[in-house]
């Protein structure tokens, strides 16, 4: 049997955690033959720790054959010890009257501390996915706080946006979602993201030609995908949780086990590709193989796309500027 892999999940007693942990323990993350040990982090707050105990009781009660162990933590220095995968879900939500810059600095503190802890105690090969918002900038902060771990190991979640866009296209074309390939979502995980189906195919045929409606792209598709998170909150009274957990599973699963040539979107540090400045964590198209992602390069960027890509980039640069002084 394979040796267990260690997976840390932060915000483990939260909404997303409640969907995510059971799927990891079921083998959906790393494969049906891969035992896992869960190292679960929550804030030291008594209520949060107690809720975490409850979730762990339920995990026990599932008797998952692949769950080789689990531990509860209130300190990232113990939670991240020897981990192979980090799912950084916990973050400071925006409270009433909280300004954007307060939110950024609260999260900068969390992700600086977690980046340092990863640097100190995680495996140097750890694969990090940041889900907690602002996800791209939080991933950037963690990356900058962990100089001994390769920058490429720090990623942010754009996969929910990617999956949302896939389903919108499948609905529009009245075709199975699995038939769509080569979709891209550029930029920040925020309403400024740019879902781009110019290269996409469905059943081998061009999605763009099949839809052939620039107004639908601009006035319906892009805003629907961009505002989907708000629409879920409006309908459910709570933010996306099961779909976010599913996207986190897809992201790490594909990174570790490969995409068989299929394009997926990951928020990854730029090396200057597509004119995006180095180190910005930006949604790019990638394929994954042998535990590594590889960016799809050389796609043509037309004027409309460049405008969208710059708009979402500028938001990221502003977020970065807002936290730069907090990085030590
Ligand atoms: P919840 O508020 O239900 O859960 C968050 C949990 O994180 C809480 O239990 C809290 O105690 C814990 N937490 C806070 N700070 C922590 C820290 N420093 N260390 C460890 N745990 C900590 O939120 P939930 O709905 O689970 O969402 C979690 C995060 O995901 C939020 O930041 C949310 O904005 C973000 N999302 C990101 C998405 C993406 O696509 N990138 C989509 C879904 C989601 O909105």
Automatic annotation (TrEMBL):
Transmembrane region(s): none
UniProt GO MF annotations: L-malate dehydrogenase (NAD+) activity
SUPFAM superfamilies found in the cross-reference section: LDH C-terminal domain-like, NAD(P)-binding Rossmann-fold domains
Active site: 189 (proton acceptor)
UniProt cross-references to CDD domains, sorted A to Z: MDH_chloroplast-like (cd01338)
Record's keyword terms, sorted: NAD, Oxidoreductase, Tricarboxylic acid cycle
Pfam families documented for this protein: Ldh_1_C (PF02866), Ldh_1_N (PF00056)
UniProt-annotated binding residues for NAD(+): 11-17, 107, 114, 131-133
A single BP term in Gene Ontology: malate metabolic process
Residues involved in substrate binding: 94, 100, 133, 164
Catalytic class of the enzyme: oxidoreductase
Top-level taxon in the UniProt lineage: Bacteria
EC number: 1.1.1.37
Family (UniProt): Belongs to the LDH/MDH superfamily. MDH type 2 family.
Functional description taken from the UniProt entry: Catalyzes the reversible oxidation of malate to oxaloacetate.
Matches recorded under NCBIfam families: MalateDH-SF1, PRK05442.1
Protein name: Malate dehydrogenase
Organism this protein belongs to: Polynucleobacter yangtzensis
